[in-house]
Amino acid sequence: MGLGNKLKQSNYQIAIITVILIVVLGSWKPHVLVEGFQRACLYAVIALPMALILGIVGIINLAHGEYMMLGAYFAYSLNVYIGMDPLVAIAPALIAFFLIGMASYRAIIKYVLGTPELNQLLLTFGLAMVLEQMANLIWTSRPIKLPLQYVSASATIGSFTFGTYEFIYVGAAMVVLVGLQLFLKRTSMGQAALAVGQNPRGAKLVGIHVDRTYLFVFSLSIALIGALGAIFMTRHSIFPLVGAPFTMKSFCLIAMAGIGNLMGILWCSLILGLAENFVLSFRGYAGWADILFFALIVLVIMVRSHQREVK
Amino acid sequence: MKKSEPLLYLIVLAVLFTLPFYMGVYVLNVMGIILIYMALALSWDMLLRSGQISFGMAGFFGVGGYAAALLFLNTGVHPLVSIVLGGLFAGVLAWLIGSAVLQLRGMYFAIVTLALAEIFRVIVRNLPDLTGGPEGTILPQAIFAGNSTYTYWLVLGVAALSVAVSDIFRNTRIHFALTSIRNDEIVAKSSGIDVFKYLVFLFAVTSAIQGVAGGAYAHIYGFVSPEGSFSIDFTLLPIAMALLGGMHSTWGPVVGAVVLGVVSEFLKLQIPYGHLMVYGIIIVVAILFFPQGIVGTLGPRWKKTVSH
């Protein structure tokens, strides 16, 4: 009860800050607003599966961005060898990465679930390195980009021109967010997952198959992030290290929103996306945009620990 | 076992010190790299003993390297002095960061440190007037004019320093404080241990060692760059070494560094573009199958055979 209220309250605060930012930005630099919004949705859709794993399976997956990178290379390979469009490749990517997620869970993740957090961090870090280097070995570190016509679609309002293709991230974020909410609230598997996330022992006592729930949630998250890799690679060039920063940014968003707060992630990614694009819009200072998330996460940690002390 | 340890250290140190007199330049160079990684692996393990995991070695390694190189270039101090000052700079920086983020521990701290190398790299790249920007900075001359014997002794000194600090931490009351923090923070707190103060101190000290190692590395190669100095290698290899050798001890990281250092020389020749994958596999396998490492698994058996 108390926790729910607090979460709602913090969502409310974050929402107000975001709305103020949007109004100020929209009147001053409209392209920052549009591109920041698109970027924010990309961040949100990457962070959501990670939040799901952290909230329910209870481990922090440092190889999260690497799965997205693999998904991107998967779509690239399908395009090169059988000429499949990356956006069509979303469907096979979903299936393939669900299986990859299952294999990862069964082969390694399962064995560190009950162990100290330290082991989980080290294991997933090691896994991230393996995946990164595997990609390096197979596809080399050369950045790859497919020449796709439709990604450069744009629209013009008055004297203001902006890319419209990137709104695909907005769509993806909405689909994933709404889909996950429906899954968690309306399906029995989702209800079981929520119960396991709250109390694995209790869930086991009432007859929920905990291990199977973990397996499903982990595989589902990996499937989502792998499929997102296919969307990601249509617009961005890909290389083995492309996923790593997203792992950290996703964690930053989850820490800001609070673990288990899926809706909050959307608001927090709006703050990060808009702020980054705001910095990017200043010529000569664009390079500094990449440290914003770090400043945010340090700020969040300081505020959180302060709150804890006050209590 | 305990009594013979100082003697053992002296013998090993003497052997290593006289190595330049009967070994070629290639062996010295390989040993030099191994000793640098050994210092990093030890400093990582020292923080791990408190239950906190840092992925920030590459960050402080690079910061120490940049600080040493820039101090040397801009103020003209002796390279050795600049290395020490570079380490101090890394330590102070870690103290500041630690004071802010060690309030929330565990994964929050781990991920903040994971981002550090990237953050420092961005900062360095965006201050071209000071740091040379994306191209980095070349020093006019490598330390000791590139004399391989002296540079070897320099890194031997860095490694010996980290072994000494690691042993001091293990054999004084700090060890009990750190172990109790790792086992149960609340119990540690109620026994009167200032957990936060200890962790910040430890983070600063270990980062200073990483900074010194980075400074030595920068002066030996006479070159600092955003990609080279903050390379993920300096995070990945020490972790793999410490895990392979065995966590929570002085000997573990030392043994791991020697074994993996020799193996990595071989691997670099065999698979030049993917040899880092092996270290990732070592980390995964070590966590899953032998979390005690070589020393933790074989050590007790060896002790038994010795005492028989």
In words, what does this structure look like?
The complex is a heterodimer of chains A (311) and B (308). Chain A is mostly helical and 311 residues long. Chain A is 74% helix and 3% strand. Chain A contains 12 helices and 2 strands. Chain A has a two-stranded antiparallel sheet with strand order 1-2. In chain A, strand 1 (154-157) and strand 2 (160-163) form a beta hairpin. In chain A, helix 10 crosses helix 11 (262-280). The longest helix of chain A has 28 residues, at 30-57. Chain B has a two-stranded antiparallel sheet. The mean pLDDT of chain B is 85. Chain B is globular, with a radius of gyration of 19 Å. Chain B is an all-alpha fold. The two termini of chain B are 13 Å apart. The A-B interface holds A 60, 62, 108, 111-112, 116-119, 121-123, 125-130, 132-134, 136-137, 140-141, 244-245, 248, 251, 255, 287-288, 290-291, 293-294, 297-298, 301-302, 304-305, 308 and B 48, 51, 53, 55, 97, 100-101, 103-104, 106-108, 110-112, 114-115, 118-119, 122-123, 125-126, 232, 236, 239-240, 243, 271, 273-274, 276-277, 279-284, 287-288, 291.
How is this fold's topology laid out?
The complex is a heterodimer of chains A (about 300) and B (about 300).
Chain A: H1 2-28, H2 30-57, H3 64-82, H4 90-107, H5 117-139, E1 154-157, E2 160-163, H6 167-186, H7 188-198, H8 200-205, H9 210-235, H10 244-257, H11 262-280, H12 292-310
Antiparallel strand pairs in A: 1-2
Helix pairs in contact in A: 1-2, 1-11, 2-6, 2-9, 2-10, 2-11, 3-5, 3-9, 4-9, 6-7, 7-9, 10-11, 10-12
Chain B: H1 5-17, H2 19-22, H3 25-48, H4 57-75, H5 79-101, H6 107-125, H7 128-131, E1 137-138, H8 148-171, H9 173-183, H10 185-190, H11 195-221, E2 223-224, H12 226-229, H13 233-245, H14 251-270, H15 276-289, H16 293-307
Antiparallel strand pairs in B: 1-2
Helix pairs in contact in B: 3-8, 3-11, 3-13, 3-14, 4-5, 4-6, 4-11, 4-13, 5-11, 8-9, 8-11, 13-14, 13-15, 13-16, 14-16
